[in-house]
Amino acid sequence: xxxxxxxxxxxxxxxxxxxxxxxxxxxxxxxxxxxxxxxxxxxxxxxxxxxxxxxxxxxxxxxxxxxxxxxxxxxxxxxxxxxxxxxxxxxxxxxxxxxxxxxxxxxxxxxxxxxxxxxxxxxxxxxxxxxxxxxxxxxxxxxxxxxxxxxxxxxxx
Length: 157
Ligand code: MG
Fold this sequence. Notes:
By secondary structure, the protein is α+β, with helices and mostly antiparallel strands. It contains 5 helices and 7 strands.
């Protein structure tokens, strides 16, 4: 069977007065992620993984931050659009594995809800992992949050 894999990586800065949205779920925290759209760093990494596996370029080409339509956008809607565009190329998402790199807060209590929300949008099983920066780099200093994702696509026959 032919399968394709794609990788996605993203990072966003932590800022006051913003919500921390990960995989479409608002995680309670004293700061949130800055960016156009809702800055859902995890969903952005998954979008890039899906687009990459489908050979469709990257998130910036599909949903440019110069386009007022995407300002404050729900990234889960962008993910649904990316899945649809992959389907247009004949691909279905079979599996997604993702890791969030974040010093605080701990993600354990929210993992199940995030996996469920992402699984609904992707119609496939989702693996979610979390790690910290051990106090090093922008993640460790709590300046930002990063995410990595790998998507596996199979023919949508
Ligand atoms: Mg992003």
